[in-house]
Amino acid sequence: MEIKNFTITKRDGSKDQFSLDKIMNAIVKAFESVDQPAELATISRVLTHLDIKDDITVEDIQNQVEEALMKEGFYKVAKSFMLYRQQHTEDRETLEKMMFLSEYMESVNAATGSKYDANANVEHKNIATLIGELPKSNFIRLNRRLLTERIKKMYGKQLADEYIDKLTHHFIYKNDETSLANYCASITMYPWLIGGTTSIGGNSTAPTNLKSFCGGFVNMVFMVSSMLSGACATPEFLMYMNYFIGKEYGLDYWKHPEQQADLSLKKRTLDKVITDYFEQIVYTLNQPTGARNYQAVFWNIAYYDRYYFESIFGDFYFPDGSKPDWDGLSWLQKRFMKWFNHERTKTMLTFPVETMALLTDADGNCKDPEWGEFTAEMYAEGHSFFTYMSNNADSLSSCCRLRNEITDNGFSYTLGAGGVSTGSKSVLTINLNRCIQYAVNHQQDYLEYLGTVIDLCHKVQMAYNENLKELQAHGMLPLFDAGYINIGRQYLTIGINGLVEAAEFMGLKITPNDDYLHFVQGILGLIEKYNKQYRSKDVMFNCEMIPAENVGVKHAKWDREDGYFVPRDCYNSYFYVVEDDSLSIIDKFKLHGAPYIEHLTGGSALHMNLDEHLSKQQYLQLLKVAAKEGCNYFTFNIPNTICNECGTIDKRYLKECPHCHSKNVDYMTRIIGYLKRVSNFSQPRQEEAARRFYAHGGTSKVTR
Amino acid sequence: MLKYVNTDVVFQEIPDEVTLAINISGCPCRCPGCHSPYLWTNIGLPLDTGAIDYLVIKEGGNITCIAFMGGDGDPKAVNMLAQYIHEEYPQLKVAWYTGRIRVPAIINRQDFDYIKVGPYIRHLGPLKSPTTNQRLYRRNDDGTFDDITYRFWRRT
């Protein structure tokens, strides 16, 4: 080996002068560690095998030393050298974790401090959230390994390599890679109603009265959520509660809620007894949870109008043979919504995320006018919730963003209502902006190129599904075994991000126009084609525009670094540009209307950002607009003001606290699906919230 | 000939309605402190029955009301268009934001469902201000008008 003035590349990327002494020292130490004589001649022989080039990496030199030792027959020395390297690798990892630890402690909030999976649902930054953060990088490595091993077995090494390549070059993004559990589910509570929690590893028996229902429900939701990485929806919550109230106070309890129902000195009315249970359940489920790294459980519920309810629960029987009572449930749903809306002026409560399910007739009117009116009334009173409107009961949302088509509304005596058991096992997202730009820059047809990426995603999801089946086969997924979730009715989800940005790259205007529509349909139609192609009797796919709480920020950053066209710091989660103030509210409904969302089978909820509440009549008209345009999933989002000085919460979007007149105010908004303080979102998301245009709903003639 | 510069779907101008506001140019009022002095000049596209048809086809099913914002240079033309809307599109209400102190005598008020009168006077404030001089009236079924300006104050 010739000695020249080389530079070497160190692990952190910096350069240094090559030093032969350092290599010799390392080799000498390796010999000494196994008590072998390290003679100069021996060492020289080893060194002759090395091929040192300019800018060689430290790793590379060490690999060569290992091989050289073995070529010369010093196997024991080589082994010791490897062990020494391994030990240093471990030390470096620990050092990295320690660096992360101190950076995390210095960061402004938990979402900004999180390196891998920023999440605004973590309100505080403390030892519990830190414990959740530290193993995330290991989970990512483990999940990739599990998946690539499976892909190799099913489709060969080339595809496994292709997956890692597309992943590391940010063409695709695997959601929730920091968790081992499947994603989100809407569960049937029937197995719990029959057998309690023993079948999923708990110790409580079936609920028998209102008290044991309310207490047991909370425990059951905690248990279920600890086995999911995302949300848990209980679309039967109020129906079951109504059943237990009816059993205790009579089916017509709702006709006399003001009657005394309590023999204590407090002499509580029935209404107070019921709302006290609401309070117990809602406040408990909004607590930070130990088993979920100090996040609250992502609890979701649903409300129904009469017809939606009949479609889903028309054949439902409780274990005692009785049928759900619509009149009582209708009252209880309204009572819960009113109570929850009022409670939110006292405390910042994120969960449950609520979805109102309404059926419409052929003219786009609500089939059940009572519930259409009530929906508009609640929006006008400032309550924040989602609405799902359809002309048949085809979907339920399993979390704050994803709707899932219901494939079977049948009833079974062991599993209850078939329709409610749905959800998504796993989400794999395509960065459309990068994929399309890459294809165009390489003179390829972008749809053809996308086709290869989409196909890859489906194969990866199939591999994920096999891994999940193996977990189930080993009894690791009691939610499936106990019937809370039906694995056959869970979707594998293809997510999309960067759609609007890709369209802008193609020179399209992001307004309701035919060219943009054609572009959207071309892409989403292609995904749906593959979704159908890969569908079998055990596997179903859907497609979702992901809310991209942190992925939208990451994609924008990575794409910009690699020289792609990136028009904003956070990719949109809507079909329109969130900061565009030239689009009217009706334009936004159009851009989330039937022609655009047709192939988006996993849904995308339109977040209609307004700066002021509308009146009930105006919301009623907008429900009609939504039905007419075919925008089936939406919410109205008016930032609520929360005073940092006196804690007052006001449903309006104010610059100053109406109580103490402090200007030190924060806002609660839905940046993605759930309502949170703006200051809890990661830094780039907070910036998006500030830029976001809240439609004034007026010219300046009224307010100036 | 009336001309309009642009339109917008608005919620605050007319309570309880989803309104297509048509911003009419050539405004002769020229209130000091006007928020849209660009409407003083005679710019934009002709606003005639053809333009109304175009706008209604575009947004008709989604809105409940059409509001003429301005048009004081030719109130008769505004009246004519209001009449046209009521005849052709009976499901839609018609509103007029005039900057005059009173509704011109040549106007048939019955052709309007809402009329806002009054120029903007800075120290009295806009409609949202309880001291405003401006008034919004709503026509009742019997043809009388109610002052509903208070609807703008409730939420402040």
Task: Count the beta strands of chain A.
Answer: 22
Q: Could you name the ranges of chain A where pLDDT drops below 50 across 5 or more consecutive residues?
A: none
- Classify the beta-strand content of chain B into a percent band: 15-25%
Count of extended strands of chain B: 8
SSE string of chain B, helix = H, strand = E? EEEHEHEEEE
The structure class of chain A reads alpha/beta
Helix content of chain A: 40-55%
Q: What oligomeric assembly is this protein in?
A: heterodimer
Radius of gyration of chain A: 29 Å
Morphology of chain B: globular
Strand content of chain A: 5-15%
Query: In DSSP terms, counting alpha (H) and pi (I) runs of 4 or more, how many helices of chain B?
Result: 2
Largest sheet descriptor of chain B: 8 strands, mixed
Question: What is the mean predicted local confidence, pLDDT of chain A?
Answer: 88
Distance between the termini of chain A: 81 Å
Instruction: Catalogue the unreliable spans of chain B.
Output: none
The largest sheet of chain B has its strands arranged as: 3-1-2-4-5-6-7-8
The amount of helix of chain B comes to 10-25%
Features:
heterodimer, A: alpha/beta, 13% strand, B: alpha/beta, 8-stranded mixed sheet, 8 strands
Question: Can you offer a commentary on this structure?
Answer:
- The complex is a heterodimer of chains A (704) and B (156).
- With 704 residues, chain A is an alpha/beta fold.
- In chain A, 45% of the residues lie in helices and 13% in strands.
- Chain A has 26 helices and 22 strands.
- In chain A, strands 4, 5, 6, 7, 8, 9, 14, 15, 16, 17 and 18 form an eleven-stranded mixed β-sheet that branches. In chain A, strands 20-19-21-22 form a four-stranded antiparallel β-sheet, with no helix packed on it.
- In chain A, helix 11 (237-249) crosses helix 14 (326-343).
- The termini of chain A are far apart.
- In chain B, 16% of the residues lie in helices and 24% in strands.
- Chain B is built from two helices and eight strands; from the N terminus they run βββαβαββββ.
- Chain B has helices at residues 49-59, 75-88; strands at residues 3-10, 19-24, 45-46, 65-69, 93-97, 114-117, 135-139, 145-147.
- Chain B has an eight-stranded mixed β-sheet with strand order 3-1-2-4-5-6-7-8, covered by helices on one side.
- In chain B, helix 2 links the parallel strand 4 (65-69) and strand 5 (93-97).
- Chain B is globular.
- Chain B starts with a strand and ends in a 9-residue tail after the last strand.
- Chain A binds chain B through residues 584-586, 589, 612-618, 621-622, 624-625, 628-629, 652, 696-704, and chain B through 8-13, 15-18, 21, 23, 35-36, 59, 61-64, 69, 97, 120, 125-128, 152, 155.
